[in-house]
């Protein structure tokens, strides 16, 4: 994109939020991330009468996961279980493997995951989603992402307040970024940029900052046709843009087809 690395103050990811949240002991809270009365903190507490034991989670993740480069739940005093009836919460990093009690991973199909989530939903177990994206681009294809499990979990009947997105559109990741890197700025001096109306733009609206919606991302086919080409006289379908914004409860400040540096010398 042409950006100088020196212009970056740092990176705050949903994975960073997840680690920081799970480092807190049962009953603790972090008001730099979310208010004390946010349901997340209560959902990370142990049931009454069971204080003193480790929390247990059903952990869905990726087959390449390792403790050095990923999260180490054992070091955080959290046990894993593959039994939905023994878990205190569901933790979603990815969805091709399930963590087992012996420290190994077992490949799981989407059908197996659906069956497990159905049992978890019956108990209204909290779900923590470390990557809330629902889809992402890989080449010219849209692939499902971990946030799609949150959608499915809600459809299975789990109450919305039990499903915790630890990245956009939740304010938690914006609060982390501001605390770590942007504490010297007011919100009026911040703009959020992204290609997802449901996550990037809705999140910016909820956090009350300006936003720039990039139209050639995951909504490209809707806005510019299946070829995702940009006509010379119109870079997106304005009626479709308005419909999508209403559908996702998102109101971008500005829209652009690309995000990158512009050099007027390129036109010479």
How would you describe this protein?
The chain is an alpha/beta fold and 268 residues long. Helices cover 28% and strands 17% of the residues. Strands 1, 2, 3, 4, 5, 6 and 9 form a 7-stranded mixed sheet that branches. A hairpin with a 5-residue loop joins strand 4 (97-99) and strand 5. It starts with 13 loop residues before the first helix and ends in a 12-residue tail after the last strand.
Mean pLDDT: 89
Number of helices, counting only DSSP H or I runs of 4 residues or more: 8
Give helix and strand order, one letter per element, not per position. Answer: HHEEEEEHEEEHEHEHEHHE
Percent range for β-strand residues: 15-25%
Taking all Cα atoms into account, the compactness measure Rg is: 20 Å
By secondary-structure content and strand pairing, the structural class works out as: alpha/beta
Shape: globular
Note the gap between the termini. Answer: 20 Å
Helical amount among residues, as a percent range? 25-40%
> What is the count of β-strands?
12
Sheet bearing the most strands, described? 7 strands, mixed
